[in-house]
Amino acid sequence: MQKTILIIDDDVYIGDMLQELLEKNGYAVARAYSGTEALYVIQNKCPDLILLDLMLPGLSGEELLPKIQNIPVIVVSAKVDIDNKVNLLLSGAVDYVTKPFDIKELLARIQVHLRENSRRNNNLEYDGITVDLSNYGASVNNTPIKLTKTEFAILYTLMQNPDKVFSKDAIMTQIEDLTPDCEESSLRTHIANLRTKLKSATDKDYIQAVWGIGYKFKS
């Protein structure tokens, strides 16, 4: 599955250079030019890793970092103060790269943190449901349930952000790598089948349709 990296930097030249570098190395790229815009992109794109500059308009990188959950963040900044680096690492950053940076070193750090995050996130658990991305398996209260590839992709997407309402377009975007043949016209049927399978295991309805918007897990 192609990994998506979000570049948060208001310097267009550096952002363009990073985007070209990452795309040449097989990554998908999303961009944000301010802290406020970054929050919107994170909610809608669910990137696999973030490259974060600190000097941003509006919300600064330091203010933005604590708001980012469950996504590895590499700070890419010209600031070289050791105390600043320590504070950022304690605030949730997984790494700190000082500008100007070596391209090969940055790519290596990205690869390492994506691999480590993948290991941590192979299993997702929520309210008795467990999914394992390494073998596309799922269980409810330790009872395996048989899902189609599309049903698994939908379940995995919803479980990554169980409190979020996903629009149909957002679900389609998130599942396209796992199940590229799924069409929006059949999405409702796949979700209905998934709800039935989950409910048959515990007699609990896990997925809620939010009228006019999309779907989310029931709280």
Describe this structure in words.
By secondary structure, the chain is α/β, with parallel strands linked by helices. The protein has 2 domains: 4-121, 3-Layer(aba) Sandwich (Rossmann fold); 123-217, Winged helix-like DNA-binding domain superfamily/Winged helix DNA-binding domain (Arc Repressor Mutant, subunit A). The chain contains 8 helices and 12 strands. The strands form 3 sheets. Strands 2-1-3-4-5 form a 5-stranded parallel beta sheet, sandwiched between helices. α6 packs across α8 (184-202). The radius of gyration is 19 Å and the shape is elongated.
Short characterization:
With 219 residues, the chain is α/β, with parallel strands linked by helices. The protein has helices at 12-24, 35-45, 61-64, 82-90, 103-121, 149-160, 168-175, 184-202; strands spanning 4-8, 28-32, 49-52, 73-77, 95-98, 123-126, 129-132, 137-140, 143-144, 166-167, 207-210, 214-217. It has 2 domains: 4-121, Rossmann fold; 123-217, Arc Repressor Mutant, subunit A.
Keywords:
2 domains; Arc Repressor Mutant, subunit A; single chain; four-stranded antiparallel beta sheet; five-stranded parallel beta sheet; 219 residues; Rossmann fold; alpha/beta; 8 helices
How far the N terminus sits from the C terminus, by CA atoms, comes to 29 Å
Structural class: alpha/beta
Helix content: 40-55%
Number of domains: 2
The averaged pLDDT comes out at 88
Number of helices: 8
H-E string: EHEHEHEHEHEEEEHEHHEE
CATH topology-level fold name of the largest domain: Rossmann fold
Report the radius of gyration as a whole number of Å.
Answer: 19 Å
- Text of the CATH class of the largest domain: Alpha Beta
